[in-house]
Amino acid sequence: MKLIGPFKQIITLANLPLRGKLSDEQIDIITDGGIVVNHGEIQEVGNFETLKSENQNIETETIEGEQIVLPGFVDAHTHICFGGNRANDFAMRNAGKTYLEIAESGGGIWSSVQHTRNASEAELLKTLVERINFLVSLGITTIEIKSGYGLDVENELKMLRIIKKAQDQTKAKLVPTCLSAHLKPRDFEGSNTEYLNYILTEILPKVKEEGLAQRVDIFIEKSAFQPEESKDFLVKTKDLGFDITVHADQFTPGSSRIAVEVGAKSADHLEATIDEDIEFLAQSDTVATALPGASLGLGEKFTPARKLLDAGAIVAIASDWNPGSAPMGNLITQASILATFEKLTTAEVLAGMTFRAAYALGLEDIGKLEKGKKADFVTFKTDNFQNVLYNQGSLNAEHVYIGGTQIH
Ligand code: NIG
Ligand code: FE
């Protein structure tokens, strides 16, 4: 057992509800606080001096200078296992080239598939761990990571096995997701339905057998998989025992409705979601995940997070870090910018990057600083937690604790 502190402010988020809008008055601030950690879990959060006198002889880890502490952030949507680079896509897009022109000149998702297939396992693992370490340095302690640049049995399993190996090289919790339904690969001979069937019969049983992922994702979009075939796929996926998440309504509306209908844990993107479907999401337990990094990468509008929160939805914010549409990877910067454009309160943004994102991943033991939760938290050298979002990502995390141990 040890006591960590004193912290100028501890923002526990403990009392905030899972869904709907939040005001900043709802944020409880513990001033001059401390955190008691026992076996990697939070035992108590409270006033530092009180905790110290109540727990005589307790080992104390003293925090120097003025620091504030927040729950470790959760990035619930990334594609950070990939080979190659798509800087040329970015440049072409900004030079006015269309999606088709970029794809024809060798860009797009298919180009990342080829680079990822051609990369050695050692190279993929090395770059993946570098990206994980970058995210951890921002204060992110749980990271979802998708496959989806392999797109055949061999290469999808290769990606998921690498993600599994990466877990041995980081203390951050990694949550793998099988995104074999990212796109029908150009070298697959058959229809979309046949490819989805191939995933169901050839890929997912092996994923299950090796324990490589418990979640399955699909990109429902005109250029990827169509609504009906996707719904059928998701129902069957669920029957196999997987949790479901969907790339929904990125450019065209309609697929968030499918996500809700099949009981997906989350519907992510939602840049094009129509008002009626915002209501539908808000009535459900499917988390609406905003991906401002994709809006910034593509120059598209932001997810209507304000409307979703006002309607009562569970809104999370994730980075979507990937080589194509969201190359930045800085969730704090992206969430701050989303807040500015969508008029989100600090409470809504912090909730969206912590316990609401954790809910999307089905994780109940993280995201708030309260008794029984895992002792994952991030500190910043400042006297006021508002400075974290105010500085739009340029106030660096000072320390990152995972399971009560300082790892950064
Ligand atoms: O979440 N929308 C589809 N998939 C990714 C993009 C992946 C890529 O372009 O490589 C996304 O934005
Ligand atoms: Fe994505």
TrEMBL record:
The keyword Zinc applies. Pathway: Amino-acid degradation. Its EC number is 3.5.2.7. Signal peptide: none annotated. It is an enzyme of class 3 (hydrolase). Residues 68-405 form the Amidohydrolase-related domain. It holds the Pfam family Amidohydro_1. One of its GO terms (molecular function) is imidazolonepropionase activity. Keywords: Histidine metabolism, Hydrolase, Iron, Metal-binding, Zinc. This is Imidazolonepropionase. It comes from Chryseobacterium endalhagicum. The lineage of its organism: Bacteria, Pseudomonadati, Bacteroidota, Flavobacteriia, Flavobacteriales.
